[in-house]
Amino acid sequence: MSTALILIDIQNDYFPNGKMELSNPVTAAENAGKLLEWFRQKQGHIFHVQHISLQEGAGFFLPNTEGVKINESVLPLEHENIIIKHRPNSFFKTELESKLRENSITKLVICGMMTHMCIDATVRAAKDLGFECTLVEDACATRDLSYQEKKVPADHVHYAFISALNGIYANVVSTEDFLQQTGF
What we know:
Blueprint: E1 3-8, H1 25-41, E2 45-51, E3 81-85, H2 96-102, E4 107-113, H3 115-128, E5 132-141, E6 145-147, E7 150-152, H4 154-165, E8 171-173, H5 175-180
Parallel strand pairs: 1-2, 1-4, 2-3, 4-5, 5-8
Antiparallel strand pairs: 6-7
């Protein structure tokens, strides 16, 4: 299989009572779990990306905390790859690209958190590196944003970024559509 699943930052701090709670993280994680199970059944390549913050003053994903751990809904198995990153782009100063190339992977199925930050940065970088990307939008989550006194609801943030990525950077699909597709 020349396709890999990339699960980005599905970590405890993004869930209820975490330090950076997102909108609908449980639903997104459940959908990511369905993708993970599908790849496990197909014996596909799986890469869990875990963000550990080293930035001074960071309020979440702090080393050695419960919040930095990968959420139980998508816990890696012993043989699955875990890529540690410190920036939004999952390729930046990580071994992700080299591991993908070592395994002759050309297609990526991407999901995770946050749509407007790490998902966006990683999908754009993946496309620039020559990978064919499928983004499973309902297996992603984000949060409300604001600029000055303008508040942007999470669902608007999510769909704005998904819309921007669709077609140019990725083929955007739902979990159900992906699981019904053939050719992977």
